Amino acid sequence: MNDTEYRNSYLLMTPGPLSTTEGVRRAMMRDWCTWDDDYKEITQNIRSRLIHIGECTPDNYTAVLLQGSGTYVVESVLTTVLDDQSKLLILENGAYGRRMATVAKTARIPFESYSFGETNPVDPEFVAARLDADPSITHVALVHCETTTGMVNPLQEIVHVIKQRGRYAIVDAMSSFGGMRISVEALNIDFLISSANKCIQGVPGFGFVIANTNALAQCEGRSRSHSLDLYDQWRVMEENNGKWRFTSPTHVVHAFHQALLELAAEGGIPARESRYVENQRRLVEGMNAAGFSELLPNAHQSPIITSFLYPTDDFSFEEFYQSIKKRGYVIYPGKLTEQATFRIGTIGDIHPSDIDRFVSVVAEIVGTKR
After folding, report:
1. How far is the C-alpha of 8 from the C-alpha of 11, rounded, in Å?
2. Element (H, E) at 278
3. Which of 216, 274, 283, 200 is nearest to 27 (CA)?
4. Contact 51/61 with Cβ under 8 angstroms?
């Protein structure tokens, strides 16, 4: 299958996996040896670039890569960082915050979770009050961009109250890192988690953690898992110049390195965020014109993915989905528990001209139904 055929199969209007560039796909066409210095150099270069993107200094922060999906990496952090004397507060307003609670419960990590509802942002004042009321809470975890809805939580304000009270901050930035500016060191985030197949525009296969080095160094021997021991993964990478503990997804790693080069060539995060913002603006404008309303107010909406309400009680998402797919686009069903929605992503190798064509297709489909 040539590149034109790849591109013409369908465009992924999703929050990851997402549509990738020809360069990223071609980067997977070579085989690599995990022990070879050339491959380890690629790993080290990736780690260095992630620290730079996170606006960190290498003296204070490190990057650790880990096989598996984003959830694997979230579990790695929670099961490595917290010991039996720790207590975790999970701030949730969607499915991915709830998933962290499931991980903590399964691993028997002492925790409590608080739900702000699926359409409300996390309230920093509540966080401050809860931490003041319970000094046994040692760590706080939250999702920056909750792709259940497209909600972006007020990260700076939340982390400020966490750090002001001397607690550790764990941030799931799965769907935002690389597409929205996050100054990890300036915010004093202890552990930031993301994945290869999101805004950096790689493909699925591994995730990564940008960690405060001192905080990570305290985690030796804590892990509740052998394979997901974040401390040991970091130790081996540090002591062996980029060597992974176990077999790494070599083709995916090389593709991610290419994606990082392409991010830099685009103009870094400011340019990519600007493109995503324009994508999302045009999407909402076009969907509104076709009769759809977005779920969230603009103040809480990320440029990553947007939830739209069903326009009528008899709206068939499956029929709408198949009609769009036949015309070359794939979107996401809703993930809310209380409202009927569907979701459309605006990240990946998608540009404003792609959005214009997409909303024209939507208008055509909706017009044929009237």
Report:
1. 8
2. helix 268-289
3. 200
4. yes
- Residues in the chain predicted with pLDDT less than 70, given as ranges, are 1-8, 337, 368-370
Q: What is the assigned CATH class of domain 268-369?
A: alpha beta
Beta bridge partners of 279: none
The dihedral formed by the CA atoms of 186, 103, 199 and 177, expressed in degrees to the nearest 10: 0
Rounded CA-CA distance 104/111 in Å is 7
Pairing between β-strand 191-195 and β-strand 145-146 as defined by DSSP bridges? unpaired
> Reduced to 3 states, what is the DSSP secondary structure of residue 186?
helix
Residue type, 184: V
| Separation of alpha carbons 194 and 71, rounded Å | 9
155-208 per-position pLDDT tens digit: 999 999 999 999 999 999 999 999 999 999 999 999 999 999 999 999 999 999
Q: Which residue has the tokens 């107010």?
A: 297
Residue type, 217: A
The fold for domain 22-264 equals: Aspartate Aminotransferase; domain 2 (3.40.640)
Q: Where are the domains of the chain?
A: 22-264, 268-369
Tell me if 107 sits within 8 A of 224, measured CB to CB.
yes
The dihedral sign for the CA sequence 237, 242, 248, 252: positive
- The alpha helices in the chain, defined as continuous H runs, are 3-9, 22-26, 37-53, 70-81, 95-106, 124-133, 155-164, 184-187, 213-217, 230-239, 250-266, 268-289, 317-326, 352-369
Q: What is the pLDDT of residues 122-158, one digit of tens each?
A: 999 999 999 999 999 999 999 999 999 999 999 999 9
